[in-house]
């Protein structure tokens, strides 16, 4: 996993306090769809370096975090800007869909 | 060429990986292109108890062993997705999503299948917000809640029981009459004894309800035609699979109505040098063990096909002399006698020609290529170009005069 990992504390800091435009991938190790989606996100990161934040949350390690967001499945990509939730992509999404969504916030 | 291979296998599940083991062992330059995790859908199976030699193993661990085995034979694995194919030439061309282009002498299609969508209102919109397809991935999100499972096959019932570890209640929607499930008997008995499992018979799902998250489902009774609503927080769909063969629609490969590829015993499709194995082909039993069997058969067939092509190229296409390409049937006396006659005539002509014999019963591809229907048949070739077809019914002197 090459994306910076967030836990409940750093999630608060990065997403809500700093208000950076970013995405957060929620996944778990035992999920095969996550294993398809996460590498797609990882490959996109370099081209948005400095412009858009990329983070990762392992739901097995941070149970309170996904519970507080009342998530109902993985993989799930949540988008944030100015400390506010903007929308999500769920399931086996294509790289094009992720890119399109990112472009909305640039 | 760096991107040219003997054998390219599309898909890295048990069928593709077994084909890769056989390909690697036969010293074919082999590449496996796989879009997700190596092992494919088997990775979602928590427990496999019917793969010989493994009493009990998880799908993921079994596939790790398959992968290790593949790598020990020097096969290359690439994580990418095939988006386009051109199977019209002897060298088959494959283009991937990342824009890479590969060529191979033979192709094995082992891309498997994916969960079927029921395609009802709410299903797509609430995906990831209560609608789910994988219990291992998502069951935990429904701790203490009500969950609906659609389907009654092995996967539906076994996954349903797994979900009861987290959910308060699991309601299974079954198409059939009371007491009838499509799954194996052991699982059915366990499910009926599970206090958290409930069943709604003769029914199907009509709609998934909810604004931002799943709040309930609309269930249709197939006997009465009436609809009822049931409140729940999650819906898991296990309504069968569809083959992942959409990318082959333009390839010229024959498929049935649902997208499964029909093959013969050698796993040959209607296209020469293209094979289909595992869950994406028309077959009776879709299990890891039968997928592995498919992969082995296809790789051996592909190896023979490639060998046949290479031998033909060096013997016939690169020959300085003109070639008499004799198609014969090794089990037929007339064929054998004709073969001797042709040898004698060539001797009398001071070995003017090079005779290359092709047994029609085993080398069907070549016979097909030259539109040969009966044995014996002879083509005269010059650097691979057909110069003449001999009349094989003629007597010796006639035969000789045709060749002078």
From TrEMBL, chain A:
GO terms for cellular component: cytosol. Signal peptide: none annotated. It comes from the Bacteria. Residues 1-106 form the Thioredoxin domain. InterPro entries: Thioredoxin-like_sf, Thioredoxin_domain. Keywords: Redox-active center. PROSITE patterns: THIOREDOXIN_2 (PS51352). GO terms for biological process: cell redox homeostasis. GO terms for molecular function: protein-disulfide reductase activity. Belongs to the thioredoxin family. This is Thioredoxin. It comes from Desulfosporosinus acididurans.
UniProtKB/TrEMBL annotation, chain B:
The keyword Disulfide bond applies. It is an enzyme of class 1 (oxidoreductase). GO terms for molecular function: thioredoxin-disulfide reductase (NADPH) activity. Its EC number is 1.8.1.9. Keywords: Disulfide bond, FAD, Flavoprotein, Oxidoreductase, Redox-active center. Residues 309-402 form the Thioredoxin domain. Residues 5-295 form the FAD/NAD(P)-binding domain. This is Thioredoxin reductase. It comes from Desulfosporosinus acididurans.
